[in-house]
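In the previous lecture we treated proteins in isolation. Real proteins rarely work alone, and many bind small molecules. This record shows how such a complex is specified: first the sequence, then the SMILES for zinc ion.
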Amino acid sequence: MFCSLCIAAVARNSFTVGCSNFRKSALQDHVMTSDHKAALAVPQHQENKELCDKAVLSKQAAMMTAVRGVSWLIKEDLPLSKFPSQMKLLRECGAANLEFLDVSKDVHYDTRTADELLECLAEQVAEEAKSELTASPYVAVMADETTDITVNKRLGLYVRTVDADMQPKTRFLTNVHVPDG
Ligand SMILES: [Zn+2]
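The predicted 3D structure, ligand included, written as tokens:
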């Protein structure tokens, strides 16, 4: 076993001449040695670290594009099953960084991903609603009967709050299924 980092840093230890101890503990011990730590600090490895950081940022940017994609589908009242083709189109149009999520073809663009992203967005909206409700000195609740697209009866609940500048804000809170009424 060799350590390419130590070899590149021209260090002299068992991992630069070839370590014949193949136990996992030998590797664990090696990464803790001062030689290996010094090799990690060499500028060229610093460059590698910068490349890694850049790749992580690109993946985050790609994930943000995916989140915005889901958000757009919801705002336009489109089904989440359109998410894979939406992402495919964005990739074909050269949307920045999307290729960074393409680890194994389409794994990151299935509808399950869209469901999970939607759950994250919903959690965020719920958190915002909660903090608005907590911060508002007055809260008005509005309720109205409505039906969904399958004509099931629902009770729409809205709240009206005021912000720090006493500006009113109306927010949709939830949609309760009414089994009988
Ligand atoms: Zn090393």
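Summary for your notes: The mean pLDDT is 84. Strands lie at 139-147, 153-162, 168-177.
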